[in-house]
Amino acid sequence: MIFWSIAIAVTAIACAVMFYAAAGRTVNAAGPELTDANAHFRQLLAGIDADLAAGKLGEAEAIAAKGELARELLRVKADGGINQPKGEVGRGVIGIGVALVAVIALGLYSVLGHPDLPTQPLAGRPEAVAQNIDLETAVSQIEAALARNPEDLRGWTVIAPAYVEIGRFADAVNAYRRILALSPPNAEVQTNLAEALLLEAGGDGSNEAMDLLRAAAASDPNHIRSRLYVAAELMRTGDYAQAAQWWQQALALSKGDEPWLAAAQRGLSVAENNGVDVAAQQQSEMIQQMVSGLSQRLMSEGGTVAEWTQLLRSYLVLGDQQQAQAAYDAAVKAYPAAFDRGELDTLALSAGLTLNGDAQ
User: Fold this and answer.
1) What is the CA radius of gyration of the chain?
2) Which end of the chain is more exposed for a tag (fewer CB within 10 A), N or C?
3) How far apart are CA 186 and CA 217, in angstroms?
4) How far is CA 61 from CA 68, 93, 95, 165, in A?
5) Cα-based distances in Å from 209 to 124, 159, 213
6) Is 332 exposed, middle or buried (0-12, 13-18, 19+ CB in 10 A)?
């Protein structure tokens, strides 16, 4: 109660100062007056728009302030603009504006503020510590704070993703377990714990992680990340029919511009084809056809050293050592002078091919 009494008193003093400062007075009598009678109203309107853009006023408060300003403008015009000098606003509008600021300030604090929260030094605020020092040092300081106060939910929330970032997956698992123990379960934290468990398992999978992911998806019908993880794990274990269903669920929640969209679509295609990556097969077949076409043309019509080098490199990329050797031998016949084949010979040598009939 003492806090609110002080807050109201301070607000009242501030409002009185604002009212006095904004009241109509002749400050510079020798200065020119505004030629436009509505100029000051436009300045006030621009100020309201600026406060709205800066987040100082909400949409509803801005509309109310504009409405009051419009009513005052109409009143001044109805009075012929003679009640006050040009460029000044009546005390009524100023009083309403000051009162509105006070009501908004106290109202917002009553909703968002925590007057009963004890003061906390900067060193005890883990998120502030993490922003001002390197990650390893920040983790060490937060760990020390958590050792003194293991029930600090905010500290665990900050340090858990930091553990993942630096590869301490077991510690991340423990941190996310603490978060779940100190707060009601939610899909995001369950998914984060599952992710840490999967990273800790190193590709071997985790039954606990799958249970957490399924629980996260069940608790939140719009949670995409848990569904993507379930689909990926089912692909790893070869359960393509179930994986396809989870891919479809995730894709149904997409907006069409997510970075994971292409991977999910490809995952669904592979799952629907029982683990066969049709797109990769088609791409491989297309490459094979292009390389085969180039080979047939060079073998029958010949070509430049650069084209033979391209053919050799293509076979090496495809992993076809036998065809690569045949292509190199044909190139040597076409260009028997070694100084013509500098890059070609270098490529063949690095691939372990036989050069000019000698094993290298």
Assistant:
1) 36
2) N
3) 10
4) 11, 15, 16, 42
5) 32, 20, 6
6) buried
Q: Read off φ and ψ for residue 359, nearest 5 degrees.
A: -70, 130
Report the amino acid identity of residue 353. L
The span from the CA of 134 to the CA of 131, in Å, is 8
Name the token pair of 278.
């049709």
User: Residues 311, 295: contact at Cβ < 8 Å?
Assistant: yes
**Per-residue pLDDT tens over the stretch 203-241:** 899 999 999 999 999 999 999 999 999 999 999 999 999
CB distance 86 to 42 below 8 Å: no
Report the largest interatomic distance among the alpha carbons of the chain, rounded to a whole angstrom.
Answer: 109
Burial of 258 (0-12, 13-18, 19+ CB in 10 A): middle
Contacts 24+ apart (CB under 8 A), 143-147: none
This prediction has a pTM of: 0.50
For residue 358, list its beta bridge partners.
355
Structure tokens given for 330: 């044909």
Handedness of CA 129, 130, 136, 142 (dihedral sign): positive
